[in-house]
Amino acid sequence: MGTVLKGGFVIELEPASVERVDLRIEGERIVARGEDLTPGPDDEVVALSGKLVFPGLVNAHHRLASVLSRGLNRPTPTSYQALLEQVRWPFENALDLDAVQVAATAGGLESIQCGTTTLFDLHASPKAVTGSLLRSARGLHEVGVRGVLSYAVTDRMGAVGREEGLEETVSFARKARGRFRGQVGAGPCFTLGDDALQGLGEALNTTGTGLHFPLAEDPLDERLSTERHGNPPVTRLLNGNLLSPRAMAAHAGHLAWADLAQVLATGTWLLHTPRSNQGLEVGYAPALKFGARASLGTDGTSPDMFAEAQAAYLRSREAGQTIDVLRYLANGHRLASQVFEAAIGPMREGALADLLVLDYLSPTPLTAETLAWHVVHGLGSRHVEAVMVDGVWRVWARRPLSVNPSVVAEQSREAAAAVWARMAAS
After folding, report:
1. Which of 100, 171, 214, 316 is exposed most, by the fewest CB atoms within 10 A?
2. Rounded CA gap, 387 and 124, in Å?
3. What is the rounded CA–CA span in Å between residue 120 and residue 183?
4. Would you call 180 helix, strand, or coil by DSSP?
5. Domain check: are 217 and 330 in the same one?
6. In a 3-state reduction of DSSP, which class is residue 129?
7. Residues 47 and 62 in one domain
8. Are residues 40 and 80 in the same domain?
């Protein structure tokens, strides 16, 4: 028994194409593509009547727990360091395992309602480390999102905290299956001593995965890394053999060209987070210089990848360094395909069936030549009508099928109130 999507316009991002064809899905994969496919006797037929079939979006750098910080009454930081010390780190310290799971469900639900079917999460809960990635996976599993999870190892809580983080990120990477994979995560380089870098290298060798970490989000990363550890971040990462085609560096907004060139030479993925950078007032990252292996993430902002793509494009135009937004989105699929070792993104035979149905009535011709303009100026999460992950409908008629949004929201509000109270008491 399969599912046949008939009469839709199937979208490919790179090379761009818009074609009115049918798709047949069986199990977790697309098994046929063509004009006027003949359904089998037991197939479910979905008449799309000209709606768009769009690849499920990939959020390459996210922080699920941040959903619980929305609206948090906080001081106005005077610097990036003050932001970390007065807001971000106290918030992470206040997370417990229940809050972690609730945040994953709430953040995963927002993600899938916005059309994101795969997200890469970099998590930190220093006072609730062990089991935190499993709890995140449980939360995402409730919603049906595909997830790549890592724990941000750091020396900020001392050697014991560092070792707990390493054990958590390695343990999850070893046992993740199905819609989940694990990576080795790390905090900012200035929070990592030499022992931590050595531990990360060992963890990478043990798991065979890549490193997911923030890099040069602010000039503070280079200044404190040099002051505390003798070298800037890129030098230390290269010396530790931590950069590779499996590595993922988020932000990269404050690297000298020589350092950026060295990072690019290793094949490391660079993850552009324009809305987060703008919100934190850390400056604009030169996304046009990020090379062929660059994608988009939302960091701690809302997990809306349509909004992120639009912000990325418009900010690049403002900076006079216009990026190819379709390539950035397509690279998210390439990254996910690399991690899951299966085709994710192409609307072709053999690819995993992660896709969106968009109810978008285009006011102008929608073609391969105009697709980017529609992504930037027209398409949005409001058009997401249905979402399929691994061949299973997870959203239908704009309603999530496996969770009750009202219950999820109530649980999230309760968890947020508890986290805020612990922050106030600390």
Report:
1. 171
2. 29
3. 9
4. strand
5. yes
6. coil
7. no
8. no
Measured distance CA(194)–CA(236) in Å, rounded: 9
Q: How does 149-185 read in b/e, with b if 16+ C-beta sit within 10 Å?
A: bbbbbbbbbeeebbebbbbbbbbbbeebeebbbbbbb
CA angle, 161 as apex, 231 and 276 as ends, to 5°? 65
Q: Rounded CA gap, 184 and 166, in Å?
A: 8
Question: What confidence tens digit (pLDDT) does each residue in 138-161 have?
Answer: 999 999 999 999 999 999 999 999
Specify the 3-state DSSP secondary structure of 279.
helix
Cβ-contact 356, 56 below 8 angstroms: yes
- CATH number for the domain including 389? 2.30.40.10
- Mean pLDDT score of the chain: 97
**Does one domain contain both 182 and 38?**
no
Which domain CATH number covers 160?
3.20.20.140
Helix, strand counts (H, E) of the chain: 14, 18
Q: How many domains in the chain?
A: 2
397: left (phi over 0), alpha (psi -120 to 50) or beta: left
Dihedral sign, Cα of residue 276, residue 279, residue 281, residue 284? positive
Question: What do you get for the CA distance between the two ends of the chain, in Å?
Answer: 56
Predicted TM-score (pTM) of the model is 0.97
Spatial CB neighbours of 145, under 8 Å, sequence gap ≥ 6: 108, 111, 112, 116, 117, 118, 119, 179, 389, 394
Q: Residue 107: which domain range?
A: 57-340
Instruction: Give the list of residues 6+ apart from residue 322 with CB closer than 8 angstroms, or none.
Output: 288, 313, 316
Structure-model confidence comparison of residues 174 and 1, the more confident one: 174
Rg (CA), the chain: 21
